[in-house]
Amino acid sequence: MKMEAEKFQSTKIFCEDIISYCLYKYYFSKDNKIFFKVSQNINVKTGRGWDYWCAPEVDVIEVTPEGQIIAYEIKGFRKGKHGESEPPALYDGISQALAYFNLPYIAEGKNFNKFGGGAFDFVYLIHARSEIKFPRYEKRIFDLLSIGFILSLPNGKFEKVKEALQNPLQSKEAKKHFLINLDTLEKFSLNSKIFRKIKGKGEKYFSNL
User: Fewest beta carbons within 10 Å, which of 35, 54, 58, 196?
Assistant: First the structure.
């Protein structure tokens, strides 16, 4: 597994967009609704009087047929100073993932946080790694947090090494609002320009398989 991963890593950068594609292609159920790079859904043409705001941007949101909402913060490999592929730093992305517990903010008039809590049931941080390795000193930190942790390998496989706990800041009203307004997230859906670009990068990455 390690040698196979290193082969991929040496030729192509296993970045966040590629991991997003792998989630869609190899990890998520086809029955689930998926949204990518969710920021804000403001649309002045509708005049609906409210908007969703995500700061930081949420890399991926998964909604199951049972109504569970899971958010994913993704950290992939990057090019180093000498052109080599480097994994994310040890705790890279934790602050963004923790911020997801409050998201999305539901802005209505002057009220920027209508329900005072987030809509997501669970939050996961995904790290690109060359091998499945979750050392004790790293696990101790994640055991203190409600976020889950998933390892993503350059061959498209995933390993969940820590289950997420229920969002401690969730608002049931915010979740209900989110679930009945998924149609307002169309520009982040599988039919969007955002996903077409992600899919194009993913298919190019795996074209030599």
Answer: 196
